[in-house]
Amino acid sequence: MAETAKKGNKSTHSIAFRLILVPVIGILVAMGSGIAATMILHTILGDQNADATLTHAVSEYSKEFDASIIQIDNAVNSAHVFFEKSFPDANELHNEAEFEYFSDQLHNIFSATMGENVFSCCHWLIANPEYTDQTAADKNGVGFFCVLNKATGEYVEQGVTNILAYSQDDKENVSWWYEVIGTKENPNKSAIWMEPYYNANIDRNLITFAAPCHDDNGKLLGAVGVDLDFNVIEREIAKIDEFKDPRYFLLNKDKRFLSSPLIETKDALGHYVPTDKTLDSEFGDVLQHYGTMNTHFYKKHHETLGEQNRALSFGSLRNGFIYGISVDATALYDPVNRTTFICIVIFVSVSLIVGLLIALYANKTLKPLNRLTTEAAKLKQGEKNIEITVGGPGEIGELSQEVHDMVAALRMNQIALEALAEKDGLTGVKNTNAQKEKVAEIDAKIQERKKPKFAIVMADMNDLKYINDNLGHPEGDVAIREMCYVLCHVFTHSPVYRIGGDEFMIIVENEDYGNRDVLFEQLKDMALDTNQVKHTFSVGMGIFHSDLDHSFDEVFARADNNMYEMKQNYKKSRQSENK
User: Fold this and answer.
1) Are 331 and 309 in contact, with CB atoms under 8 Å apart?
2) Half-sphere exposure for 213 (CA within 13 Å, toward CB)
3) What is the pLDDT of residue 553?
4) pTM of whole model > 0.70?
5) Facing residues of 147 across strands?
């Protein structure tokens, strides 16, 4: 009896302890949370937090715009490299068949690299009329000009502007040519971002990113470029609605206004007209810079804004332009004040309620719930190898089962996605995602002076366009798969990557590296032996030398050049056979 009583008392004390301790802890947590919320509120209301809020917003918006800019930059640079490699001598532009084949390939480059870019409205190639027998009387120039049809969303090819038909001072028709090819605006003859201008050829306000192309002797081959619809850019920027009364600014690198609701940059017809107004001329006398912050606070009367306390923050874009947002400064604090107050009230109320519920149900629910919370937190933090414990009373048991099933499904989906993300759909070998990861890994080893042993083999199908045009794209796909099979068959211990439509890369390593020369000669023989392969292809190899190379790209360039030489020799031999 005494023992039983002792146990009963102990049990009673234990229950009482729980009923008292848990609510007290809940109240203490609520009080601590209220104090913490007050501290956070005090911090948020400071100028530095207002600065951080607006600066972060500008940074996020800038990243969205930069994503499209990077895509356009990659497209033009890829087209630029392809143009110069395809025509090492400007006099070859006379070859209409060669130029037509080149134009088709360049179309594919733009399509593959541009994707669905929200700002792009045109992409183009124009050949230097000096080498194409063009005259001012001709209706069109030589090249292509593809314009986005707003109604269908498709790019439609239009006639190329004949540069010779316009004077160099005709800004509305040919400024995009003369600014790019190497005038005072572009003394380095490099790819440049032009500022907004009105293009009379297609009746649109544009921003152009273009690059002049030169042959091996420095002669101008022509230019390639992408045009951005400036009206679309303005509409996208104007969609900002995170703050009260937002106003956007777009400036050039000299802080001259390119677009703003406060500055007029269009004539009565909606054509873009540059302004000479700058940030300093409009706001220089009122901007106040606080310490190391990025945000400026000012008060000034504007017809569209009225007399307001404003906050203005800027961010640089990858093309050299400056992006900024002006908002009602006092409004930066209002949402935070309301949200913080509501959060404190909710948090304290919920804490008290939860404290009472815990006192009543802790014995049944805390242990399984704590286990489930801990495992869910691990899942949130990204841990993959976790096991959700199934069990617990009522809804907790059902919840743990659902979470367990969800984790299992997520794990299976993740495995499938990881496999698809690095696999080429046509051939089954690794794709460009896997190739980029491998290149990054090799470059890291090179930078750490670990002297990795590898070589690069490039392979490219011969006459794929002829196969597609005359035998059909299915036959072209068969040819690509056949070439891939040969590559995998020869280099059995090295990864094979499909990095383009008919272009493959092999990173020769492991056992293949020691036999690289023998294997490469075997591959060369098979590449041109129509008794072994149905369609021929060209190959080239580059070997990494630790005392010569500083990056993967240097080895890649040698392999690519060697492949290009083999392709050129193949073309010459075909031409000789056809004579």
Assistant:
1) no
2) 27
3) 94
4) no
5) 122, 156
